[in-house]
Specification:
Length: 296
């Protein structure tokens, strides 16, 4: 990809994820903090009505509404579906967007630390990941390239490039200083990288980097009536990105029985016991640890 000319930082895509919302307030008051010389940066409040009502969303998850099919469907008109269409008109349209880079800021209740989620692995994204890991040693890279960029339903997929900054652990509707500071720092590093990328003046980068590629999602234990009958096992609670082997316990049933993982690969759980996923009874995501070559 060529030069990035326009970037948009989105906060509050989920109305109860406060770090991005309060960083937008800070940057709107002091726009020089996100200003760089080789491209323009703007901000967008994703779901203001969700924030007003102190909810993740009012009708449906805004960050699942951005496939081209859904954006083009005039029958999808609840609040978040309508909001998605408005955001697409403002930043996009998807497929031929006004904005080159969309950075979407999120919090998780899971113990994922400062995580950057990439949706594709081209020169821009692989160089960014390598740069970020050099500048922010505690950062973690997750890759969700299981579908093509144009087929993703995430808000950030509107842009020619899209990134998800995912920082936790932070309870819903709460601010934690360590989490907000991580989000601020990671966003600043991303903006610095774009400036250097545009100028073709990046420092020497390693040939590869370690990342976690999404593989599958596990559901909470449920009975035939759809009622939960267990919970995430205490041994993996808060142990995001820690190796899970075949036979390790992952759930404890309310009867006291342990359920162990039966897998044929070495897995790395993340989004463990994420509060926002309980409405879909999702327990965690599993990733494979991979080494990604940096594309020059």
């Amino acid at each position: 990809m060529g030069k990035i000319n326009t970037a948009a930082i989105v906060g509050g895509t989920h109305g109860n994820e406060f770090s991005g919302i309060y960083l937008l307030k800070k940057w709107d008051q002091s726009p020089e903090l996100i200003s760089r010389k080789t491209f323009s940066t703007e901000t967008l409040f994703g779901n203001p009505n969700g924030y007003r009502d102190n909810k993740r969303y009012l009708d449906c998850d805004l960050n699942r509404q951005f496939t081209e099919k859904d954006l083009a469907d005039p029958q999808l008109m609840n609040y978040e579906q309508s909001r998605a269409k408005a955001i697409n008109q403002h930043l996009g349209p998807k497929g031929d967007p006004r904005i080159d880079l969309v950075i979407d800021l999120h919090n998780t209740t899971s113990n994922m630390g400062p995580t950057l989620i990439l949706l594709q692995l081209d020169a821009f994204n692989t160089q960014l990941a390598a740069y970020l890991l050099e500048k922010m040693s505690e950062a973690i890279i997750v890759v969700e390239d299981q579908v093509a960029m144009e087929d993703h339903f995430f808000l950030c997929s509107i842009g020619k490039q899209g990134l998800i900054v995912e920082i936790g652990p932070q309870p819903q509707s709460v601010l934690r200083q360590d989490v907000l500071d991580w989000m601020d720092e990671m966003t600043q590093h991303i903006l610095d990288f774009v400036d250097l990328f545009n100028e073709k003046s990046l420092p020497e980068l390693p040939a590869s980097f370690t990342a976690y590629r999404y593989h599958e999602t596990l559901k909470l234990p449920m009975d035939e009536a759809g009622e939960r009958i267990g919970m995430v096992h205490k041994s993996i609670q808060d142990a995001d990105f820690t190796l899970l082997k075949n036979g390790d316990p992952i759930f404890t049933l309310f009867t006291g029985e342990e359920v162990c993982w039966q897998g044929d690969y070495e897995a790395y759980p993340h989004f463990i016991n994420e509060a926002a996923y309980y409405d879909n009874n999702l327990a965690m995501s599993l990733a494979k640890k991979v080494e990604i070559d940096v594309i020059r």
